């Protein structure tokens, strides 16, 4: 190419032109990529559901959520039964049947559905033994997952893998195979919940996700535990800043990971694949405190990126500690250690989000019976409510095909009276009568377990007697009042029939 006479080639100008052309090409390509990405479906709306520690004491009534907290929950944790490696158990303390009988868990899950909620179940957690670690047979492991999913009619499960379970390669392979089979049979959606640092997931976490995908699991998402950073957090960073860094790093990692398995996702799709779960208030690491301000900052980031999921650990802890808790820097399972209103974190994090995966704002209409004569004593698990009878705190009744528990002494108060405020109502709704339920058999005792009741004897509060094969405890001084006489408003019974934990404790005292 000839040069124009009298002019010299300017390498600076040429460089500017080349850079400009490169910029135009780059911008065009990025614009085209953005255009293509914008046309790709990103999936279901973002949602919120807090974790509930099902076996913690005192029990959290997830079936009666705080106002604004949403009507869904992630129920934690199903682990391996200590006495049977491949059997699922709640917190290693209750078999599924024991949770039904002692925690009324089946009914409470059904109640959550009455409210229009979608309960999730989380397998694993930091404590106890994770199912895939204990059970070395893939078929039996699949059976364990299936038992839980079918029993509670769960559409979405959460696999919380941390600690030693995360580094157990054999367990990770078994879990992936079992979950892939479960998903094939039941169509169950799957989230994995993993520890994270500001620089992202650990190598073990990335390997677990890769293994799940290679096994054929269609992951709904990766939920990262934005908590307990320890030395990985920059000293000057707030908990919210460290959490946002962790989410951004996870986004980059998942982009690389999905590209590596030949499944390219757009930036928006990747954000929908990510969830965040902070630990409220005082974290397990001393000095790490996730405040309401941190929650607001994390919420703003999640809303801007349209994060797929927000959760929190836990709904049990979403309240201030009472003055009886001596050291707020010590983690409690029942409070956050902050000066806060009850339910404040759930209200903040859950604002303007769906309440759980695929949940509508309003519960579906039901065809529940409306007449009292629909309650059949032959098929009701507890006595049908009677306006003439007096009930003590803790007693349960069936009314219009729902189960209620008395909060204090009551007589003549209709359990489902809609005009009485919750804090004034003597009854609390637990949930519906479940299909196939029958009256609970009375807990009997062997002859001679306790002293036989005598009509002429005087008894004081706390005395335990036996009438036939049933045991009773005196509530106040009494003489001549038969323990099996009905309790009414005009003549309340001084006796309470013993059952459950109270009967077990009384037996232990009698045998000592």
UniProtKB/TrEMBL annotation:
Residues 479-492 have a biased composition (Polar residues). Gene3D superfamilies: Carbohydrate-binding module superfamily 5/12, Glycosidases. Residues 364-377 have a biased composition (Acidic residues). Residues 356-379, 479-498 are annotated as: Disordered. The chain crosses the membrane at residues 12-32. PANTHER family: BIFUNCTIONAL CHITINASE/LYSOZYME-RELATED (PTHR42976), GH18 DOMAIN-CONTAINING PROTEIN-RELATED (PTHR42976:SF1). One of its GO terms (molecular function) is hydrolase activity. Pfam families: CBM_5_12 (PF02839). This is Glycosyl hydrolase family 18 protein. Keywords: Hydrolase, Membrane, Transmembrane, Transmembrane helix. Residues 382-430, 450-498 form the Chitin-binding type-3 domain.
